[in-house]
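Supplementary Methods, section 5.1.

A reviewer requested that the exact input to the structure prediction be made available. We therefore reproduce it here, unchanged from the version used in the analyses.
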Amino acid sequence: MSADEKLDQLSQLTAGIAHEIRNPLQFIVSHAEVVSELGEELANVLLEYRDRLPDAASDDLVSLHDELKTASTQIVRHASRLDGIVESMLATGTNKVARRQLVDLNELVAESADLAYRSFAASVDASIEAPPALELAEDVPPVMVDPVRLSQAVINLVSNALQACAELVRRTVESPVVVATGSEGGNCWVRVTDQGHGLTDAVRERMFEPFFTTKSGREHAGLGLAQVRDIVSHDHAGTIEVTGGVGEATVVTITFPIQLEH
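The structure derived from this sequence is encoded token-by-token as follows.
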């Protein structure tokens, strides 16, 4: 089976998963909005009856209301983000037009790296405190990108890097993963460096193939990098470069125009 045929299979698989996710996601969003509305009604009731309640009880109810409001807001926010990820899954491997807008690249990269780290930390059976180190250039201008798709690419890169050096992350407080940004001329770049096992020639030859995985070295790198390449090249007219060998730091750099031509 050719790489293109595998990519077609990946597209069909992700589209099916995305559609399955969308229905319960809409249910979650609608009920979170209901909870938020009920919270506002609760606030009105508290204002009306606050003078009739003991001070301690009134303060407790106000505190509970504030926590409820914060929680419902976060649910709606992250559900909306998940909906964007679903859209990204549906766009993978298709000719769907990217939804580009002007964004702060450093902010997007920092948030994406944090999400990847939190997901990784939750997946390992250990207490870890070694988030990726950030080296974000202050002079990076706003970029015209699809923020959902580009964020997914960065999340994949950071997740791969964390998996590659999972044992190091567990036993150190100094992160073996560095995420950097920069710009030069009309392009900007995001670079993820890890001090993991490095790359063998065999893995390097196949690392962009859909569904390719390996249980040694960079575990599960294949699927993530296949999607990253699609996002960078198809949606952002960019390139991806991987350097490093066995026993060396692995460096993955994605580069794309600051202002994409329409």
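The chain has a mean pLDDT of 79. These observations are discussed further in the main text.
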